[in-house]
Structures are given as structure tokens and as C-alpha cells.
Write a structure and sequence with these properties.
By secondary structure, the chain is an alpha/beta fold. The protein has 9 helices and 6 strands. Strands 3-4-2-1-5-6 form a 6-stranded parallel sheet, with helices on both faces. α3 packs parallel to α4 and α4 packs parallel to α6. The mean pLDDT is 94.
């Protein structure tokens, strides 16, 4: 009985803290674009004696929660770092399980009403040609079905690497210069931005980047777009990420003075 009372008391304190945080961040400027490095899935699973892909599965389920919280807070865009180009170096079994989880979750999204009810546009950032055919087709269908929505922009960085993105952009730009479509003297930061994976997004640059798990680096994520992003590192594994963790990150963002190099 004592343990139950302690849990109820803890839950009540949590809810009070959540309400206080909600009122606090509502008074500040909300970030328009939040990017998330979803780190800690494997360590979360390993500490529980589980296979790493079980952590990936629980982590994938957390994405829908964050999307709903972003809708609640009025955030306009959220980008999830789901699979990096470097992740392809992992073991064959883990990659198979990762692709399976991604395919299942994308299939669920296609069959549910969340994206249509809330007019959520989904875009995939990355080298999609590296993905299995079935997953690539599911992602293409999801992009096609949501291409005209504009209430919330959800970007999935899959088979993504910041250096790979800039490399791909440089190749396309060079081809246009060689073809006479662009003069070399006209190349500017603005022009380069038009060749990036995020070129057609209304808010390509994240205001803040959250990384979970306690690691403090951006790991080749949105290298061009994150030039002036606020970096927020949280000491919580991604499968354990809570609404109050997102609100704490937003409160930290609101307390900072963004100078954009000035």
C-alpha cells in the first residue's frame, strides 16, 4: 500500500510540474522548427538485457507522441533523425530489424487518421535509394498523400548524413554550372540552399536541436541548416523521453538570447 501511495504522490507531482511548465512556455516565443536526434535506443535496451532493435521499436513509438505534443504547442515543423548513413555500418540483423520497424510504423501512419486529420505533411530527407524497395515505396506513398498539407511539417531524416547532403547538393550545382543553367559567379549561400534536401520546406533551418541520451554532439545532422540552431542536450534515453522533457527543452530555448552571429 505504501508503494502505491508513493507512486500516486509522484504522479500528482509530475502532473503539477507538467501544468506549470505548460503555462511557463506558453508565455514565451515558441520555436517554429524543432529537430531531434533520437539517441539512446540501443543503450536503453542493453541496460534491460534486450536486443537493440527492441529499443528501436520503443523509440519509434515515441515519435507519434512528440508529433502530438508539437501540434499542441503550435510548433510548425519537426525533424526526426531516424537513420544515418553511418548506421548502415551496423550488423545485418539490426539493419533488417530497423527497416522492418520503419516499414511497420509508416504502414500504420498510412492507415491511421493522424496525418490527415491534422494536415501533417511528411517529407523524407536522405539518400532514399539506399533503402529497401518496400520501405522506399511506403515512404513515397506517404509523401505523396500528404504533399498538400501545411499545418505541421514532419521531416524524417532516413539514410541521412549532413556531409552526404552537402555532397549531393554540390554535385547537382556543378552539373547545372556545366550545363550552363547557372553561372559560377552567381553561386551564393542562398543558391546552395536551393540544392539541399530541405530546399522546398517553408522552415528549413531548425530553431533548436534536441539530442537525448546525454551525448553532446550533432553527429553529422543538418550541418548546413544548424548554423545558428540552439543545441539542447538531455540526459534521458529516447525511449524514456517525456512531454516534460520537451517542455524543459523549449523553456531552455526561450531563456537563450539568439544573436545569429551578431
Amino acid at each position: 500500500m505504501g508503494i502505491l501511495q508513493d507512486l500516486l504522490r509522484l504522479f500528482a507531482v509530475y502532473k503539477l510540474y507538467e501544468k506549470w511548465l505548460g503555462r511557463t512556455i506558453a508565455r514565451g516565443v515558441m520555436p517554429s522548427h524543432i529537430a531531434v536526434i533520437m539517441d539512446g535506443n540501443r543503450r536503453w535496451a542493453r541496460e534491460r538485457g534486450l536486443d537493440p532493435w527492441y529499443g528501436h521499436r520503443i523509440g519509434a513509438e515515441k515519435v507519434e507522441d512528440v508529433i502530438k505534443w508539437c501540434l499542441e504547442f503550435g510548433v510548425k515543423a519537426v525533424t526526426f533523425f531516424a537513420l544515418s548513413t553511418e548506421n548502415f555500418k551496423r550488423g545485418e540483423r539490426e539493419l533488417e530489424e530497423l527497416f522492418k520497424i520503419l516499414s511497420e510504423k509508416i504502414g500504420e501512419v498510412l492507415n491511421e487518421n493522424l496525418v490527415h486529420k491534422h494536415r501533417i505533411r511528411v517529407k523524407v530527407l536522405g539518400r532514399k535509394e539506399l533503402l529497401p524497395d518496400n520501405l522506399r515505396e511506403l515512404l513515397k506513398k506517404l509523401e505523396e498523400e500528404t504533399k498538400n498539407y501545411d499545418n505541421l511539417y514532419v521531416n524524417l531524416a532516413i539514410a541521412y548524413g549532413g556531409r552526404a547532403e552537402i555532397t549531393d547538393a554540390a554535385r547537382k550545382l556543378a552539373m547545372d554550372v556545366l550545363a550552363g543553367k547557372l553561372r559560377i559567379e552567381d553561386v551564393s549561400e542562398e543558391v546552395i540552399s536551393r540544392y539541399l534536401y530541405t530546399a522546398d520546406l517553408p522552415i528549413p533551418d531548425p530553431d533548436m536541436i534536441i539530442r537525448t541520451s546525454g551525448e553532446e554532439r550533432i553527429s553529422n545532422f543538418l550541418l548546413w541548416q544548424s548554423a545558428y540552431s540552439e543545441l539542447i542536450f538531455l540526459d534521458v534515453y529516447w525511449p524514456e523521453f517525456r512531454k516534460i522533457d520537451l517542455m524543459r527543452a523549449i523553456r531552455t530555448y526561450q531563456r537563450r538570447q539568439r544573436r545569429f552571429g551578431a
